[in-house]
Specification:
single chain, 240 residues, alpha/beta, Rossmann fold, 4-stranded antiparallel beta sheet, 6 helices, 10 strands, globular
């Protein structure tokens, strides 16, 4: 399967008084399927803006965001609001910094909701069974075999983040976008989440963009970029 994400001279500005503030300054990067590109840099440097643009949540001022799959190449930066929402549902998985789980839903239900987005409310029984089976398999894959029926309040921080990751994989995304996955975790649980992400990406072949402040795991990434004042620079490969 051919999967790749490429940003080509992406520029994003925000209003700032009488002028405009540059959040992304002609950003270029390339991520192939089955690999992880990490983006690091100081707070306010533009990392979150980059994730928002790549995820189609914000449209850049200029440049292209190309997502290549076997079915063709789409410029995510050129999509209208409705088209962007459809692409997010079908091709993009987002792992938020905070798990943002729905308190009234069990772990397996958190995933099932993702599969139902954008569809008619009543699904055939066979489809509901297929969805439930897939959700359970994903929870098993992230190490939550005995936690399918638990609610968020019954899960640890690391377990909630695992549900968060499984939820992002529910629709088999070509592109996986991950925001600070270890920020709310201690060192041991953070390392376990990075292990899980690496395993998932290698196994499922998603092109993955991961933003992190945690330099301890950068040597495990396939490529590392550093962002400062909206400008992105590829860093030398670090071998430990």
């Amino acid at each position: 399967m051919t999967i790749a994400l490429t940003t080509d001279n992406v520029t994003l500005t925000y209003p700032d008084g009488a002028g405009r503030l540059t959040a992304l300054d002609r950003v270029n990067l390339h991520v192939t399927g089955g690999t992880i590109a990490a983006v690091t840099g100081p707070s306010g440097s533009g990392k979150s803006s980059l994730l928002a643009v790549v995820s189609t949540l914000i449209r850049p001022d200029s440049g292209r965001v190309l997502l290549e799959t076997d079915s063709g190449t789409v410029d995510l930066a050129g999509l209208g609001r409705r088209e962007a929402a459809a692409v997010r549902r079908s091709r993009i998985g987002i792992v938020f910094q905070q798990a943002n789980l729905v308190s009234a839903l069990t772990a397996v239900e958190q995933l099932e909701v993702m599969s139902h987005l954008g569809r008619r409310p009543r699904l055939p029984t066979a489809n509901r069974r297929e969805t439930r089976s897939k959700a359970r398999e994903l929870l098993d894959a992230v190490g939550l075999t005995d936690h399918h029926a638990k609610y968020p309040a019954q899960l640890s921080g690391g377990e909630r983040q695992r549900v968060n990751i499984a939820r992002a994989l529910m629709n088999d995304p070509a592109l996986l976008v991950i925001d600070e996955p270890t920020s709310a975790l201690d060192t041991e649980r953070g390392a376990a989440i990075i292990d899980l992400i690496l395993s998932v990406v290698r196994d499922r072949g998603s092109a993955t963009l991961l933003v992190t402040h945690d330099s301890a795991h950068l040597h495990r990434m396939d490529t590392v970029y550093r962002m400062v004042d909206g400008a992105l620079e590829l860093q030398p490969r670090v071998v430990v």
